[in-house]
């Protein structure tokens, strides 16, 4: 088993920057804003032959509001999971009362704790560490996560002094996990539609912070889990509002993370609010999913609080405003109470299977012939467009390439007809189908004579008549 190391400390001391530095990624959102990280973020770190799992946590504060309590609970869960705790403090501000309270708590957990003094870019090591010895946590490590200063010494200390790390160096049964066959599922939607509550319901634990406040989730949280023998990577994303309402740079970065999660996913779970129906921002998100070519499943949340007449209106509203997602399975659920949630993963698996389906060329050509027989393509310049054969050109989404004559003149209406026909005939659910056309080259095109001008034609006729006389 890989050892687990948790990063804990006050808000805005550089835990996420250190997390990105050690994991050599940019998975944790970083900004000069206190309380940015709220959930537990996991990453893999490696030094020489040793590997370990790193957990980034939200800042521990003494504030008594509900959000701080939820963030503290997430950090405490990370401490329980960890074999080692890195207590990160701010070298610029020195020891503050909150640091003393956290140090007191960590001394009682019964696990090794290493004090890490961050933000020491312009200070000497001895001067930066002098004030922190009174925390009673032993010899500290002085670093600058932004500049990378002291990171090498920090890793050497971990390798030398911590038994949890030394186990990895001699443990040969730990193999690199192959996640290529996992289903990557991104949960997206507007703010406060219940995405984090749904993620916690699917996982069966309070894995991410769920709070009745828009913008609770700020980062994209990647969570591996297993259900009924199938491995998933669940991505909880930040809510995406209309561009006119996005003013903070922090929220813009969160939206970028959400768009990256859509690109990384195999299947996207689009969460709607049943109390509000389909609004313009839902249409915008659905368009982004279609443009990315990802398979999609629709979850209409907060369904349990509606009357029969309201439910009929919501169902009609979805059918009317999302006709371009008619291929996606729609589920009416309550993430808070769990009703309908159990069927979501079945639709996700089917959408994933449809997006990565292996379809042989003879089958695609046969379906193409049936589609043309049912509805002929239009005429172009008095000649009928002719399709010869079709083959699979890509997956996720299925990309069907059709060869023939004059195929570049195929109108969009007939293209949509072919997309729907292939999807129905091949029983593909939850995934868009991309159609591409390839026109065969005319081998005699270069041998065609250029068009004859009227003067040349008249000269040819006069010359021909003169020869006859």
TrEMBL record:
Binding positions (GTP 2): 189-196, 236-240, 301-304
Subunit structure: Associates with the 50S ribosomal subunit.
GO aspect biological process, one term: ribosome biogenesis
Family under the similarity heading: Belongs to the TRAFAC class TrmE-Era-EngA-EngB-Septin-like GTPase superfamily. EngA (Der) GTPase family.
GO molecular function: GTP binding; ribosome binding
EngA-type G domain ranges (all copies): 3-166, 183-356
Sequence segments annotated as region (Disordered): 439-469
Gene that this sequence comes from: der
Biased composition (Basic residues): 457-469
PANTHER family, sorted: GTPASE DER
Keyword Lyase: no
Protein name as it appears in the record: GTPase Der
Biased composition (Basic and acidic residues): 443-456
Role: GTPase that plays an essential role in the late steps of ribosome biogenesis.
């Amino acid at each position: 088993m890989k050892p687990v190391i948790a990063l804990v400390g006050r808000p805005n001391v550089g835990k996420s920057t250190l997390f990105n530095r050690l994991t050599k990624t940019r998975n944790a959102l970083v900004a000069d804003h206190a309380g940015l990280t709220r959930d537990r973020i996991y990453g893999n770190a490696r030094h020489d032959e040793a590997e370990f799992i790193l957990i980034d946590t939200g800042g521990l504060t003494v504030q008594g509001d509900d959000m701080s309590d939820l963030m503290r609970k997430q950090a405490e869960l990370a401490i329980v999971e960890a074999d080692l705790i890195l207590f990160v403090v701010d070298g610029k501000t020195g020891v503050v009362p909150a640091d003393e309270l956290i140090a007191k708590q960590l001394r009682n957990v019964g696990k090794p704790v290493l004090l890490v003094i961050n933000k020491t870019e312009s200070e000497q090591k001895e001067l930066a560490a002098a004030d922190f010895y009174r925390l009673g946590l032993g010899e500290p490590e002085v670093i600058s996560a932004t500049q990378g200063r002291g990171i090498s010494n920090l890793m050497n200390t971990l390798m030398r002094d911590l038994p949890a790390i030394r186990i990895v160096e001699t443990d040969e049964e730990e193999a690199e996990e192959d996640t290529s066959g996992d289903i990557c599922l991104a949960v997206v939607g507007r703010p406060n539609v219940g995405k984090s509550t749904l993620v916690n319901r699917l996982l069966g634990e309070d894995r991410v912070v769920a709070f009745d406040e828009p913008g609770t989730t700020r980062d994209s949280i990647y969570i591996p889990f297993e259900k009924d023998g199938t491995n998933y990577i669940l991505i909880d994303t930040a809510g995406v509002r209309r561009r006119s309402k996005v003013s903070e740079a922090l929220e813009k970065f969160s939206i970028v993370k959400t768009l990256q999660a859509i690109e990384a996913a195999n299947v996207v779970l689009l969460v709607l609010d049943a109390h509000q129906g389909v609004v313009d921002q839902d249409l915008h998100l659905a368009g982004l999913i279609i443009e990315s070519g990802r398979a999609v499943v629709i979850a209409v949340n907060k369904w349990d609080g509606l009357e029969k007449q309201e439910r009929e209106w919501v169902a009609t509203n979805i059918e009317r405003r999302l006709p371009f997602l008619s291929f996606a399975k729609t589920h009416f659920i309550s993430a808070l109470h769990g009703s309908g949630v159990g069927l979501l993963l079945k639709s996700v698996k089917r959408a994933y299977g449809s997006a990565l389906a292996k379809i042989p060329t003879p089958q695609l050509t046969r379906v193409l012939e049936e589609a043309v027989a049912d509805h002929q393509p239009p005429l172009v310049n008095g000649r009928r467009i002719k399709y010869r054969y079709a083959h699979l050109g890509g997956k996720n989404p299925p990309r069907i390439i059709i060869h023939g004559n004059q195929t570049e003149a195929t109108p969009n209406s007939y293209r949509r007809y072919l997309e729907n026909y292939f999807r129905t005939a091949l029983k593909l659910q939850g995934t868009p189908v991309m159609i591409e056309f390839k026109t065969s080259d005319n081998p005699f095109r270069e041998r065609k004579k250029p068009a004859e001008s009227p003067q040349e034609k008249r000269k040819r006729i006069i010359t021909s008549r003169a020869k006859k006389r």
